[in-house]
Amino acid sequence: MSENFILNFTPTGMIPTKEMTTFVPVSVSEIVEDVHRASEIGITMVHLHARDPISEVPTYDKAIYASIIEGIRKYAPELVICASLSGRTFKELLQRADPLLLEVIIPSFTFIATAHALSWQGITPVFADINPETHTLDPESASRMITPRTTGIIGVHLWGHPASINELQAIADEHNLHLMFDAAHAFGCSCKNEMIGKFGECEVFSFHATKFFNTFEGGAIVTNDDELAEAMRLMRNFGFSGVDNVIYSGTNGKMTEVAAAMGLVNFDEIDNVITCNRRNYYAYLEGLSGLAGVDILPFNPDQRNNYQYIVVQLDDKCPVSREQIIHVLHAENILARKYFWPGCHNMKPYRDFFPNVGVLLPNTKKVAEKVVLLPTGTNMDTDAVNIVSKIIRLAVTQHATKAL
Ligand SMILES: Cc1ncc(COP(=O)(O)O)c(C=O)c1O
Fold first, then answer.
1. What residues make up the domain containing 301?
2. Residue 253 predicted with pLDDT over 90
3. pLDDT band at 61; cut points 50, 70, 90
4. Beta bridge partners of 25
5. Which helix (H) or strand (E) segment is 285 a member of?
6. Residue 128: is its pLDDT beyond 60?
7. Residue 65 and residue 101 in one domain
8. Is the pTM of this model over 0.90?
9. Which atom of ligand 1 is nearest to the CA of 217?
10. Ligand 1 binding pocket includes 219 (Cβ within 6 Å)
């Protein structure tokens, strides 16, 4: 990469005009420094395009890109492609690469992006139930949803917990279906001592700012399928195969240096993030231990985990509702969240398609109504975790008070 290149700054979400853009010559090391500074003061979203100052050609696929690929490969050795696309857009690319998909089975208990990625391609997402213990796609339920139009299954490694990979693979093999995994949460996680990123036909990581490893926005796809990889490489850059030669219908999915720089900065932090997340997880386990009706979804200590999500699951023994617990935490300015409620099948774009599918998704309903995600990460120390745990304990044990 040339030492100097030009960043074209445009405010996120706006169409760049000449007046609006500022051209600033900078070096890669300056970007990395800036990203360090930006993350220190809490800036998380900037939309930048990098261009070579002489040729005006975007400066992708060069040294910084090579460095981030090298870094990502430590966690996902089979990575072949990486771009500044959201995980959702990546999935759209995947489906475009294989237009034969018609009906694809996914869990309803996932982020809506998993469903949208399909429907944007004219593919019907068919919602299946989850295993209430792991919150991942229940293979039996997935099996029941297969119709003559089904051409694929997307399992989701929710919260970084591996989906039932072998069982789903067996179903896919038996019915000749594509199998892909939404690995948005699972960067740095393993399944039976093999890193997530090698299962199914491909797996898709998200590097969105909320994720364990982030490049502001972005994602990566991992596949062993050379044809699929080549199709996506082309689509990432408008289908260009060399200068002036477009051989494929594509889009703009290139990773900018600044996104890669953010990723490189975050690689330095990755072990620290895991250490803090793991420490917080064990502190929450201790802080909430013995509290009737309140469980934390366990991480398997024998596997590699990123411990990014602290998922509290209430059961019928809990005398207060999930909403009451969240209400109390929010009143104390603690940002606990419901997640994936009320399930994709109940969201407007899909609920009219499948008005009665809820009867087939009892575990989705049960889990979606009963989970609370607790704050964690490097900004939380053990004292903060203990305060959150104490407030939950108070909310549960003093449920009869008017405060609730
Ligand atoms: C399970 C799951 N899938 C997909 C996505 C979408 O990822 P991105 O925001 O990178 O498109 C998310 C993001 O939050 C997610 O949680």
1. 271-336+375-403
2. no
3. very low
4. 6
5. helix 257-287
6. yes
7. yes
8. no
9. 10
10. yes
Question: From the CB of 86, is ligand 1 less than 6 Å away?
Answer: yes
d(CA 300, CA 233): 35
| Nearest-CA residue for atom 16 of ligand 1 | 111
Task: For residue 135, report the distance from its CA to the centre of ligand 1, in Å.
Answer: 16
Antiparallel, parallel or unpaired: β 202-206 and 178-182: parallel
Separation of CA 191 and ligand 1 centre (Å):
20
Report the CATH number at residue 198: 3.40.640.10
Q: What is the pLDDT of residues 169-212, one digit of tens each?
A: 999 999 999 999 999 999 999 999 899 999 999 999 999 999 99
Q: Ligand 1 atom 14: the closest Cα is on which residue?
A: 111
Summarize the confidence of residues 320-327 as an average pLDDT.
95
In a domain, 16, yes or no: no
The reply to whether 263 and 276 lie within a common domain is: no
Residue 15: inside a domain: no
Please give the span between the terminal C-alpha atoms of the chain, in angstroms, as a whole number: 59
Q: In testing the pocket of ligand 1, which one of 116, 203, 208, 221 has its CB within 8 Å of the most ligand atoms?
A: 208
214 Cβ closer than 6 Å to some ligand 1 atom: no
Q: Among positive and negative, which fits the CA dihedral 328, 331, 332, 336? A: positive
Last-in-domain residue among 227, 250, 267: 267
Please report, as a single letter, which amino acid is at residue 31: I
- Note the pLDDT of residue 354: 85
- Asked if residue 78 and residue 222 are part of one domain, the reply reads yes
Ligand 1 geometric centre to CA of 186 (Å):
11
Residue 114 CB–ligand 1 contact under 6 Å: yes
Are 193 and 297 part of one and the same domain? Answer: no
Q: Is 308 a pocket residue for ligand 1 (Cβ < 6 Å)?
A: no
187 falls within a domain: yes
Tell me which of 267, 298, 314 is where a domain ends: 267
Q: Is the CB of 326 under 6 A from ligand 1?
A: no
The full DSSP string for 173-218 is: HHHT-EEEEE-TT-TT-EETTEESSSSSSEEEEE--TTSSS--SS-
Task: Decide: 111 in ligand 1 pocket, CB within 6 A.
Answer: yes
Specify the pairing of strand 150-156 against strand 178-182: parallel
Judged by average pLDDT, the poorest of 19-33, 136-150, 264-278 is 19-33
Q: Give the Å distance between the CA of 209 and the centre of ligand 1.
A: 10
Compute, in angstroms, the gap from residue 33 CA to the centroid of ligand 1.
28
What is the total count of domains within the chain?
2
* Stated length of the chain: 404
